[in-house]
Amino acid sequence: MAQILVQKINLLLFPFFLLLGAAAAQSTGSIQGRVVDETGAGVARSEVLLVHLMQGFERRAVTNEEGRFLFSNLPIQSYELVVAHPGFSTFQDTIAVQSNVPIRLEVRLTVAALAETVDVRAFSGERLLETGETGTRNELSLQRIEQLPIQVGSRGVEALLVSFPGFAKNANGAIHPRGAHNQMTYVIDGMPISDQLTGSFATALDASIIETLELYTGNIPPEYGSKVSGVASITTRSGLGSGAPFRGSVELGGASFDTLSSVSGISGGGDRFGYFISTSLLKSNRFLDQVSLDNLHNGGNSQRIFNRFDFRLSDRQQLRANLMAGRSSFQVANLRSQHAAGQDQRRLLKDFSASIGWLYMLNDRTTVDTTVSYRTAVAFLHPSLYDTPVWAA
């Protein structure tokens, strides 16, 4: 019955993705491995470590009873793979993830000599240098992001980008890459967004959803197109392969101007299904940059929710669904003269995005990888009776 259902899903999905014409493909890969001993038997409960030092990327896994492990949602680059188990020699190798074609590995462990000495030291990282790249690219992983002193809530991505060389921020958090205005593209799991994702124009992204961030600011790859000054390619977090049915976190924050924020996330999953859900809330009486020293009429709030669901329909195909929505409601800051006149302008921003990514492996070297996305964003300016010097809506 399950096989018939998968076949029906294949028949439905294949023409759907071909006819809709679509967008950028996913820029992630996966590693499927099995740890065996010298006789070919699986080695259960082996510790597997995958790292990329320059990006600060690190993933850990423990093999199951058959000795199998899985790393999914991996950015395209080279990694150091380390496998260890008591009584066996430690295995270490460099694995290059160069496409979305899953890499299948068989790691064979040998019995350690009785007099063997294990020298634990940091990797040199020499083999992790991407010598073939000609553009300007910077990378950040979840582990590095968690260590940065960024703003709480929905302003986190803005603070991340400003920390990179060549970026400047002006009023209300607007980002200017390399001196350009409104020339920034965000690509979220293959879905391109060319809006200004800043406080006064849209409800910005929350940094807690990011697994890895790749920022291009020079010689940008042609597949991105559109905005040419900066491209932020974001791979979001996933619960696929986490091995935990449920895990979660809640972060609360407070600051001056009655600022309150919260960021919460839950995730979980196994080898066939994974989910990640994040919500962020922000309320402040200094929502935007003030235009008067008195910070007049400047309160606001924002909410954002992000959902990602991953399905491994079979060993050859995967399905990913993303849902994202945001809302901001805030007052337009007043000058002293406007405040004295009773001006009460307000803005309301709403956006919704949905994307479906489908990856089908035709053979060991060829895949069909498609992302179809939909996005809508609206903005309202609500005027008041005593607007000065002009009335606008």
Give a description of the structure.
9% of the residues lie in helices and 45% in strands. The protein is mainly beta and 393 residues long. The N terminus is likely disordered. It is built from four helices and 21 strands. A seven-stranded antiparallel sheet has the order 15-16-17-18-19-20-21, with helices on one face. It has a five-stranded mixed sheet with strand order 8-13-14-11-12. Strands 3-2-5-6 form a four-stranded antiparallel sheet.
Question: Could you outline the blueprint of secondary structure elements for this entry?
Answer:
Layout: H1 2-20, E1 28-36, E2 47-52, E3 57-62, E4 68-75, E5 77-84, E6 91-97, E7 103-108, E8 136-141, H2 142-145, H3 156-162, E9 167-169, E10 175-177, E11 184-188, E12 191-193, E13 210-218, E14 230-236, E15 247-255, E16 259-269, E17 273-284, E18 300-312, E19 317-331, H4 336-341, E20 346-361, E21 367-382
Parallel strand pairs: 1-7, 11-14
Antiparallel strand pairs: 1-4, 2-3, 2-5, 5-6, 8-13, 9-10, 11-12, 13-14, 15-16, 16-17, 17-18, 18-19, 19-20, 20-21
Principal-axis shape equals: elongated
Radius of gyration: 24 Å
Query: Helix proportion of residues, in percent?
Result: under 10%
- Order of strands in the sheet with most strands: 15-16-17-18-19-20-21
Give the DSSP E fraction (strand runs of 2 or more residues).
Answer: over 45%
**Number of extended strands:** 21
End-to-end span in angstroms?
A: 58 Å
The major sheet is characterized as: 7 strands, antiparallel
Unreliable spans: 1-25, 123-128
